[in-house]
């Protein structure tokens, strides 16, 4: 079950997209966990037909998982991650327009509106007013499918993967003789995950006839990740380095399927240089011994800079963007993702506790567990400042304590208290705060929209005659409408910034791991 902040945000998203009845269903499933349809009807106090229709809507939109087991029968479960992804739908449509033009944006928009839809229905709906455009939509749809931006909606996608993962892990653990070690448990987990992914891949390898397609969020998320990496390279070095990083990511873009990849597929310096025009002026961003260096030579220098080739230490590797192996270039997604998440953590610590708070967080991240006196000594800060600062950081879950008792009775007076940064706990706490912020933004938008004057003007603008000619609105009504649109735009920009931080902490946390979010 989701925590309180996540549940509130999901209920608000469902309410704003589908109305109050489906929000009742979402609230019951989020607060009570997995339920049967009969239990859902009892807890929501809805008519059976209404509950059935609301459930079908959420299943069609991929927000509910349903499974049929021998022990429990048919059960329904809320898909929290799928619901939260709806905040990113506008970005997905914009990305599709950038890649495939207006036809690609219309196709993605239609599929997002319907949840899942068959190929002939997409073409027939979009070319209804212009039959000659059916060939264009068919070609664009084929590009979206071949590029993995759309994927088949299979039977497995409607079942909670957690059930099968638990089942497969239990089967693998049963094969272990004796008391399992940590390595054997990790191998069992990886084997179960690989088996689950193999089944999903086999289920998705189907033809086009009679298949319902849905949007592949992972593929669209790779573009968002690549843009963040490009911006990080520009901030760390300069604009020319960002251009080289953009070309490096572009060279392997077609083979990037998910944000969970630990590193990119290999590419070559020549392939990267071909994607950079001679007019970009790479020589302005780096000093070389050659007056007129070639584009390939400059690209090689930038790649060496971003791979920290001059610092072959653990610190240098942790600060690198790429790795060079046998004339092949790899983008290290896992290393960059860890650094981006750490940057968010440090930004929150600086905002709430100032530079001294960031100094302590960095110290604990670099050295590990330390007691209060060691922190004060190494950080060169007085004890009367360190003590309340540690308590404040701990209250925000940015740092944690580890008890080390000196006696068997675990007497607090004879116990060492070591401070450290529990990254998983800290990131989970930050995600909770970000979800709360997104909920507040949504409530503020709703409150502004339901203000009596704005509500009356929006209702008038929705009329057919006013929609065709907005000059029918009075000057005062146009001013009210303009003010409302300005507020809505500001709230949308704020929501996008918060959602970007959520992407870094939640989606990039899956890089190189098998953990559930």
> How much of the sequence is in beta strands?
5-15%
| Rough outline | globular
Question: Mind summarizing the main beta sheet?
Answer: 3 strands, antiparallel
Strand order of the largest sheet: 3-5-4
Mean pLDDT: 89
Ends distance:
12 Å
Helix content: 55-70%
| Count of separate DSSP helical elements | 22
Radius of gyration: 27 Å
Please provide the count of β strands: 9
Structural class: mainly alpha
Q: What are the segments in which pLDDT stays under 50 over at least 5 consecutive residues?
A: 513-517
What can you tell me about this protein's structure?
It is a single chain. This protein is mainly α and 517 residues long. 63% of the residues lie in helices and 8% in strands. The chain contains 22 helices and nine strands. The protein has helices at residues 4-18, 20-32, 37-44, 48-60, 80-84, 89-114, 119-126, 134-146, 161-174, 182-204, 217-236, 239-251, 269-274, 295-306, 314-318, 333-367, 372-378, 383-395, 423-449, 452-461, 464-468, 475-507; strands at 64-69, 73-78, 117-118, 150-152, 212-215, 322-325, 328-331, 400-405, 415-420. The chain has a three-stranded antiparallel beta sheet with strand order 3-5-4. A two-stranded antiparallel sheet has the order 1-2. A two-stranded antiparallel sheet has the order 6-7. β6 (322-325) and β7 form a beta hairpin. The longest helix is centred in the last third of the chain and has 35 residues, at 333-367. Residues 513-517 have low confidence and may be disordered.
């Amino acid at each position: 079950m989701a925590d309180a902040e996540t549940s509130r945000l999901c209920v608000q998203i469902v309410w704003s997209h589908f109305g109050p009845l489906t929000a009742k269903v979402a609230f019951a499933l989020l607060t009570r966990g997995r339920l049967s349809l009969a239990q859902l009807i009892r807890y929501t106090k809805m008519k059976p037909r209404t509950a059935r229709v609301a459930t079908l809507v959420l299943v069609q939109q991929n927000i509910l998982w349903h499974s049929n087991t021998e022990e429990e029968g048919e059960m329904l479960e809320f898909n929290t991650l799928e619901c939260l992804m709806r905040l990113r739908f506008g970005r997905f449509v914009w990305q599709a327009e950038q890649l495939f033009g207006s036809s690609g944006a219309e196709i993605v928009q239609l599929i997002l509106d319907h949840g899942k839809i068959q190929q002939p229905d997409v073409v027939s709906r979009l070319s209804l007013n212009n039959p000659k455009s059916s060939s264009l939509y068919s070609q664009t749809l084929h590009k979206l499918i071949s590029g993995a931006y759309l994927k088949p909606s299979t039977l497995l996608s409607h079942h909670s993967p957690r059930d099968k993962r638990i089942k497969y892990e239990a089967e693998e653990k049963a094969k272990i003789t004796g008391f399992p070690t940590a390595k054997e448990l990790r191998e069992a987990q990886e084997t179960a995950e690989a088996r689950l992914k193999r089944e999903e891949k086999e289920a998705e390898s189907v033809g086009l006839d009679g298949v319902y397609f849905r949007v592949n969020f992972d593929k669209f998320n790779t573009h968002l990740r690549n843009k963040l990496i490009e911006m990080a390279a520009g901030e760390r070095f300069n604009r020319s380095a960002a251009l080289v990083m953009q070309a490096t990511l572009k060279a392997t873009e077609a083979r990037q399927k998910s944000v969970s990849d630990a590193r990119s597929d290999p590419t070559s310096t020549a392939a990267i240089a071909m994607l950079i025009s001679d007019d970009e002026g790479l020589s302005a961003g780096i000093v070389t011994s050659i007056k007129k260096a070639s584009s390939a030579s400059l690209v090689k220098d930038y790649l060496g800079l971003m791979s920290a080739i001059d610092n072959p230490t653990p610190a240098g590797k942790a600060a690198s963007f790429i790795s060079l192996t046998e004339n092949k270039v790899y983008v290290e997604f896992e290393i960059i993702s860890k650094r981006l998440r750490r940057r968010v953590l440090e930004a929150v610590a600086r905002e709430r506790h100032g530079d001294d708070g960031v100094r302590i967080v960095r110290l604990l991240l670099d050295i590990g567990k330390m007691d209060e006196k060691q922190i004060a000594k190494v950080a060169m800060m007085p004890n009367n400042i360190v003590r309340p600062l540690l308590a404040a950081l701990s209250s925000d879950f940015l740092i944690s304590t580890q008890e080390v008792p000196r006696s068997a009775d675990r007497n607090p007076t004879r116990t060492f208290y070591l401070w450290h940064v529990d990254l998983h706990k800290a990131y989970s706490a930050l995600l909770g705060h970000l979800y709360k912020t997104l909920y507040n933004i949504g409530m503020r938008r709703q409150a502004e929209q339901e203000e009596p004057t704005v509500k009356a003007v929006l209702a008038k603008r929705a009329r057919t005659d006013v929609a065709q000619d907005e000059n029918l609105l009075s000057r005062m009504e146009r001013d009210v409408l303009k003010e409302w649109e300005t507020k809505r735009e500001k709230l949308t920009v704020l929501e996008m910034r918060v959602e970007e931080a959520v992407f870094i902490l939640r989606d990039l946390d899956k890089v190189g791991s098998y953990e559930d979010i």
